[in-house]
């Protein structure tokens, strides 16, 4: 039991407040491991692959309640470092057509060079039109699948099961549309702003812990690319042609409005601190 308490203390120091029931189960799962270092490593790995609504305790920090104020008038900051998990992720800074073009371009890069579509000024060619021998075999083979990103929108869930939208106020390098599995855990620093119920993410205040959830999302990036393409096409086909760009602009404007409210909130907090300092 002393070793179990050491593991709990180790995790708590890292702002991960586990349920005692879950920790007992994880401790039993670790089997014959008794040395503290391999034990904490094994239990941490298990925790990152578990739904936090089951693994974290009732004292784990969670999202503040949704504001009662009219939209645009309120913001709140997280009071303590908070562990959350990603339940969905989408690109909102690029149009559906632009994302589908990016998917097509990515699929082309995965093909052998001799099977790719030839575009002007895209690849160097020999005088007879063939690819140079040095680059002929397989370009991008084995490279991680990545799509260009502008602004990601996520659905985050806390230990109590509450869900909130989140957007990148500034790009978070660890987040990727194809490489970030559903269930990945994030640690949000105290002070992260929640504006109109939307969590604002920045690299400096968002720690990517990794992990996932057991189930169908334990897939390859290529499988996620297939699912993303199908989803984008379904969403595009639902919108009339004239409404597609309008709907996309509305989504982008919503993100810009939240960022604007965040900047105003940050300036208001700074003025408040300055006023208290002068009084």
Automatic annotation (TrEMBL):
GO cellular component: nuclear body; RecQ family helicase-topoisomerase III complex
Comp. bias intervals (Basic residues): 266-279
Domain RecQ mediated genome instability protein 1 OB-fold: 78-213
Ranges for region Disordered: 124-143, 241-279
TM regions (residue ranges): none
InterPro entries documented for this protein: RMI1_N_C_sf (IPR042470), RMI1_OB (IPR013894)
GO BP: double-strand break repair via homologous recombination; resolution of meiotic recombination intermediates
Pfam families: RMI1_N_C (PF08585)
Family per similarity comment: Belongs to the RMI1 family.
Record protein name field: RecQ-mediated genome instability protein 1
């Amino acid at each position: 039991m002393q070793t179990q308490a050491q593991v709990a203390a180790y995790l708590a120091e890292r702002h991960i407040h586990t349920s005692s029931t879950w920790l007992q189960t994880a401790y039993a799962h670790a089997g014959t491991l008794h040395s503290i270092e391999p034990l904490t490593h094994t239990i941490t790995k298990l925790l990152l692959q578990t739904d936090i609504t089951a693994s974290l305790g009732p004292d784990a920090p969670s999202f503040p309640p949704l504001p009662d104020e009219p939209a645009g008038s309120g913001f709140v900051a997280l009071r303590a470092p908070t562990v959350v998990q990603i339940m969905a992720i989408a690109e909102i800074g690029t149009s559906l057509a632009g994302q589908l073009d990016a998917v097509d371009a990515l699929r082309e890069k995965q093909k052998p060079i001799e099977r790719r579509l030839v575009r002007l000024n895209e690849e160097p060619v020999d005088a007879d039109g063939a690819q140079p021998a040095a680059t002929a075999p397989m370009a991008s083979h084995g490279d991680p699948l990545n799509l260009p990103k502008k602004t990601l929108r996520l659905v985050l869930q806390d230990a109590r099961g509450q869900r909130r939208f989140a957007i990148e106020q500034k790009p978070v390098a660890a987040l990727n549309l194809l490489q970030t599995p559903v269930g990945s855990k994030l640690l949000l620093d105290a002070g992260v702003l929640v504006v109109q119920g939307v969590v604002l993410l920045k690299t400096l205040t968002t720690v990517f812990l990794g992990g996932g959830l057991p189930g169908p999302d334990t897939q390859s990036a290529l499988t996620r690319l297939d699912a993303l393409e199908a989803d984008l096409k379904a969403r595009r086909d639902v919108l009339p042609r004239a409404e597609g760009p309008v709907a996309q602009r509305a989504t982008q404007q919503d993100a810009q409005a939240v960022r604007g409210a965040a900047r105003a909130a940050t300036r208001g907090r700074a003025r408040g601190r300055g006023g208290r300092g002068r009084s």
